[in-house]
Amino acid sequence: MLKETLCLGSFWSVAFSAIIAKWLQYRPVKKESLIIMPAFGVQLEQHFWSGRVHRQFVPVSKILKPVLNECVTPVTCYWSLALLVRDEDEIMLIFKKLHPPVKMLVPIWKALCAFTNSDSLSPPVFLLADDLRKPVD
Question: Which domain of life is it from (predicted)?
Fold first, then answer.
């Protein structure tokens, strides 16, 4: 009787662990895209598996510079593309949930630099946590 209970308990704990692991890996975002509209701005889109679409428009007058970041976590390392936006406290990630390879991000970054008239060879902009707390003169 004890062996059957132990076996049944082990089965349910393994099944429950598998369900939790699958739930943690679930990504509701199906596709993310960036649409560059010359003279107007950029539109960020997120398409979800449910069919819902989230769109966000950023006018060209608010875009300071596109930035290509290397994100390092204790587990992984990936590249992300972001925008420095005027009057915003944080950078705006273009691909929020999906992490495309750097080979795909570099041409998009170059197109954004050309679109915003940013010199791609200009020195990088580094934002520190202390810089966000300082008042702007």
Answer: Eukaryota
